[in-house]
Automatic annotation (TrEMBL):
Name of protein: Helix-turn-helix domain-containing protein
GO molecular function: DNA binding
Signal sequence annotation: none
UniProt-listed PROSITE patterns: HTH_CROC1 (PS50943)
Segments forming domain HTH cro/C1-type: 13-63
Length: 152
């Protein structure tokens, strides 16, 4: 993010180029409510964060809020959005390499329909690789969603 604020909600608003008054009006809330959120006095509801993400054109805000402020957040993938188009391309290449390798190994391990005790460790290792691929894919999706919201 190019501009930083005291907290992530504020950073997203600043990056959208909105004042507190403009953002509050767009979301139909008071400026005092927004100020409380941006100074960590009040946690916004999921519904308000949904409006914030739309108003600020920042889909990452919704994910961040749930990951950090929901009891279910630990179930969400670890998302690190690419910082540039070049980074996105590199992540795509790495994702393709990893999924190809993991797919071949897992196919071999599961070919006989039985997971032998000596195969379990490899299965866990390649499952972790598949999870990293999934996280990369989600990161790329969030990045592209952000570009779409910006109209790029």
């Amino acid at each position: 993010m190019d501009k930083t604020g005291n907290n992530y909600y504020q950073s997203c608003r600043l990056n959208a180029g909105l004042t507190q008054a403009q953002a509050a009006e767009a979301m139909a809330i008071s400026t005092s409510t927004l100020a409380k959120i941006e100074t960590d006095v009040r946690l916004p509801s999921d519904a308000l964060v949904d409006r914030m993400a739309d108003t600020y054109r920042s889909p990452m805000l919704a994910w961040w809020h749930l990951k950090n402020h929901s009891i279910l957040g630990h179930h969400l993938p670890d998302v690190v959005p690419p910082q540039s188009d070049c980074d996105m391309a590199l992540q795509s290449i790495l994702m393709g390499d990893d999924i190809g390798q993991a797919n071949e190994v897992v196919k071999c391990l599961l070919a006989d329909g039985i997971i032998a005790p000596d195969e379990y460790e490899d299965l866990v290792k390649y499952n972790a690789m598949i999870k990293r691929v999934s996280d990369r894919a989600t990161s790329i999706n969030v990045y592209i969603d952000g570009l779409e919201k910006e109209g790029v």
